[in-house]
Every structure is written in structure tokens, then in C-alpha cells.
Amino acid sequence: MGPVRSLRRSNPLTIVVGVVLCIFIFVFLLSPSSADSAASKARSANAASNPLSPPTSPFRKQNEKANGKRKPPPVVHYKMNNVTSTADPVGNRETILILTPLARFYQEYWDNLLKLTYPHELITLAFMIPKNREGNAATLALQEQITKTQKTGPEKHRFASIIIERQDFEPPLSSQSEAERHKMENQKARRAAMSKARNSLLFTTLGPSTSWVLWLDSDIIETPATLIQDLAAHNKDIIVPNCFQRYTDSKSKDVKERAYDFNSWQDSDAARKLGEGMGPDDILLEGYAEMATYRTLMAYMYEEGADINTEVPLDGVGGTALLVKAEVHRDGAMFPPFPFYHLIETEGFARMAKRLGRAATGLPNYKVYHYNE
């Protein structure tokens, strides 16, 4: 074996180059990706400077005292004319507020949220959870997933901010099972409570920089990853996709689909006449044989293989997945917890928006999927 070459006889330049190369590799492996870095910078740029800032602005706690004195809260100017809601929300860096009334936590709902391709640093999530046993369980499960996503998850999955609120009133139903929720005799009380929850969530989270509000129910477990961009591309004041449900046929054992949300509809003369004969506190309900309205339901407008961008005008909308320009809510359109033209909650919202000159649009061939209990 030949003599071992002494380190002292090595070329000093070779050693220097080797050290520099090792440092470069070390830095490259530990540094965040350019996409993650850009997202992090965007969050820092949009961070609120004070706890009194709008809840949709992520707050980074800073030293509140200078020279031993508490800093006064800043005077902030918001130029509302600069807030846009356009067909190209990504290109215009428009902020999205996703609002979810959450009675039960479904892991599939959260997993689907993480798959949305809209830049997460432009998304704020907000939840309204009832104060009962099921609500407590949902809160714990939600917080666990938030911690995983916001603290240890990939930077691209992290949202600008997340807000959790608890209802200040008791839910009218003791059970949140699908069968109990859809009983006809429970609808007025249940949907009035849902309206209150939606309004509380909306009015406490809508910030001055919010461009779009996406109402997304906690049991919507499957949507296209481009849901926000797809709906916003139509540039409509209010737009709703068609909500379906997958199920296993009891006989063939095949996985099939069925229409789920019947609250998106076009009005009928029969429904109007029914309303004319009702008392001031009575409401019209859709999807029940006992109250035949003969409305044209978007749920049954779906055509296999047809254009997913086909639009239809609507008089009532469901709230399972509903994209609204923030300015519509700022104009005063909310979810009536009382009979409004004999309509309540999301259907009442569509009627109220129409009175404000804001039209609702449906996409019968664009589907999202509801959890099947």
C-alpha cells in the first residue's frame, strides 16, 4: 500500500474550496423554499400591528411598551375603494374569508381545506361552534388540526389567521344527526339558530380588506382543489355550486351519487301563492312532500358531461358552499333569523340580496360533496 498523503501537504486552496462547499450545502438544505419564503413574507407584510386590528389580519404580538410606557393604539386608514372582488382573485391578491358554522368536526373537511390551491396566506378561516358537549368535542378536534397545520405543517398549508368563536346561545336541537336536522317540524327553529350563528360569525370577522366570503359547511368533505378560483372566475355577486352526496347502494353495493341540497331554486307561481296564504310568521320550506312548491330545483338541473361553467339565475340559495362578494354583505345582506317574505336563513339571504340589487347565480354542473352519515 502506498504512503498516506499528509494533510499538511494538501493544497490549501483545495481545503478552502471544500469548506465553502460544505457550508453551501448545509445552508441549502436548511433554508426554506422560495415559495415558502414568499408566503412567510406575505404574512409578515399583512400582519396586524395591534390587537385592535381587524380579526382577519394575523396578529404578531410585539413589545407593547416603549421606555416603560404602553404604546397607544395606532390610527389606521383603510382605503375601501382599493378592495377588489374580480374574476382573477389570485392575480389581484384578493383576500378570502372562509366561514364555517361547525357543530361536528370531520377530518375530511379539514383535509379538503388543505388541498385548496388558492394561496393560503390570503385565506382567513373562522368558525362558530355551539356551546354543548358535541361543540366541545369539535373544538378540541379542530384545535388539534390547527396546531398541526399552523405550527408544524408546511408553510404553504398555513393560513393567514384562524378564528374560533363559541355561540352565546344554546342550540335548539339536542342532536345534530342528519335525520334529526332534516325533520320538517325542526326546520324553523334550527334554521333560525343557524341564521344567528352565521350573522354572528360574519359580523365579527368581516375585515376591511376582505374581498370574498366563502360559506363552507363543516360537512362538505370534497370539492375541486380550485374551488375558490373556479367560482370567482364567474365574477358574480353570489354564486353557488351543486351539492351532491356519495352513498353505497344497498342492493348493488355500488357507490352512487344523489342530489343533497334543495335550497338552491328558481321560484314558481305555486310557491308564491302558498306564501300569499300564509301568516306573517310562517315560512316556505323546500324538499318536503307536505309543502309542494313546484319550484325548479338546481339539484335536478345537473347534466352528465355538460359544461361545468353553465350558469342559471336563482331566487334561493343553499349555504353548503356559497361564494359571496364581501361588498354584498357590507351592503347589508345577512341571514334573516325571522320570516323574510316567508323565507329564512340562506334562502332569505338570497331574497334580501335581491332587494339590494344583487343577483344569485347557480352552477348546476359544478359539484361539491356532502358527508354521508
Automatic annotation (TrEMBL):
GO biological process entries: cell wall mannoprotein biosynthetic process; protein N-linked glycosylation
GO cellular component, one term: mannan polymerase complex
Family label: Belongs to the ANP1/MMN9/VAN1 family.
Organism taxonomic ancestry: Eukaryota, Fungi, Dikarya, Ascomycota, Pezizomycotina
Name of the protein in question: Nucleotide-diphospho-sugar transferase
GO molecular function annotation: alpha-1,6-mannosyltransferase activity
Region of interest: Disordered: 45-76
Compartments reported by the entry: Golgi apparatus membrane
Keywords: Golgi apparatus, Membrane, Signal-anchor, Transmembrane, Transmembrane helix
Pfam families for this protein: Anp1
Membrane topology, record value: Single-pass type II membrane protein
